[in-house]
Amino acid sequence: MNILAPVRRDRVLTELPQYLRKEAALHVHKDFHPRVTCACQEHRTGTVGFKISKVIVVGDLSVGKTCLINRFCKDTFDKNYKATIGVDFEMERFEVLGVPFSLQLWDTAGQERFKCIASTYYRGAQAIIIVFNLNDVTSLEHTKQWLADALKENDPSSVLLFLVGSKKDLSTPAQYMLMEKDALKVAQEMKAEYWAVSSLTGLKLLPVSGENVREFFFRVTALTFEANVLAELEKSGSRRIGDVIRINSDDSNLYLTASKKKPMCCP
Ligand SMILES: Nc1nc2c(ncn2[C@@H]2O[C@H](COP(=O)(O)OP(=O)(O)OP(=O)(O)O)[C@@H](O)[C@H]2O)c(=O)[nH]1
Ligand SMILES: [Mg+2]
């Protein structure tokens, strides 16, 4: 018996949302990996539909981590700063290619005095979102340390990384372009996908306002889902040896690559 309410209509993904910047994208394929599409059609996604994937959000204090999550999950924005103490989390349910998929978004504290508590929740993340303020270059510099700390508790070869510049509404186009140059460099170094968002402004497009917020979380969801299904297929032995996901340091804009061999089940 299914005791869960149906997934909200605006949380249904039928195609792969695209990256923001090609030069700092986890991969640039237009569609989901053919093996993933095929496995979903044939209901061979293993435990993916039952598992909850963990995503942690880290970064300096007051860069806007909580506001970003609240904008996506509740479509709210609080202009008053209330520091996160330790951690908070939100659950979001999606349906990707017909398969139920849940993300647990862990919102961690940026304040130094709470970092110790927050870091105990880093373990077991499938994706790490590192947030910096687009108007504060120091917060960008600190992202490398945040990543290093988060990776101590996780497997660097399987976790997906996202570098997110926040508060885009506060920079002029010229200021933004300057910051974006530096941010793209950092994203490339860490092999993270780069996004720029504003939790405050943006077109009032239902159901989530804010600039790039919905697009960003849909991309996180899709790529996490894709990686999960591929891992399941590998585990179940239905994938051929050599057809592996690997981090390829030689690819300038294709961090996560898969071999282009023909899938076994689909044309
Ligand atoms: N203008 C603007 N202000 C923002 C944006 N996002 C967050 N803020 C403001 O920045 C301040 C900090 O936001 P939070 O989301 O609480 O920051 P945080 O990263 O969660 O901070 P900690 O919990 O201490 O780590 C608040 O006053 C927010 O209103 C944004 O996109 N634009
Ligand atoms: Mg917070």
TrEMBL record:
Keywords assigned by UniProt, alphabetized: Acetylation, Cell projection, Cilium biogenesis/degradation, Cytoplasm, Cytoplasmic vesicle, Cytoskeleton, Golgi apparatus, GTP-binding, Hydrolase, Lipoprotein, Magnesium, Membrane, Metal-binding, Nucleotide-binding, Phosphoprotein, Prenylation, Protein transport, Transport
Gene Ontology cellular component terms for the protein in this record: centriole; cilium; Golgi apparatus; phagocytic vesicle membrane
Protein location: Cell projection, Cilium; Cytoplasm, Cytoskeleton, Microtubule organizing center, Centrosome, Centriole; Cytoplasmic vesicle, Phagosome membrane; Golgi apparatus
Family: Belongs to the small GTPase superfamily. Rab family.
NCBIfam families: small_GTP
Protein origin, superkingdom: Eukaryota
Descriptive protein name: Ras-related protein Rab-34
Listed GO biological process terms: cell projection organization; protein transport
SMART domains xrefs: RAB, RAN, RAS, RHO
Membrane disposition: Lipid-anchor
Cited InterPro entries: P-loop_NTPase, Rab, Small_GTP-bd, Small_GTPase
Subunit structure: Interacts with RILP. The GTP-bound form interacts with REP15.
Cofactor: Mg(2+)
GO molecular function: G protein activity; GTP binding; metal ion binding
Catalytic activity: GTP + H2O = GDP + phosphate + H(+)
EC class (word): hydrolase
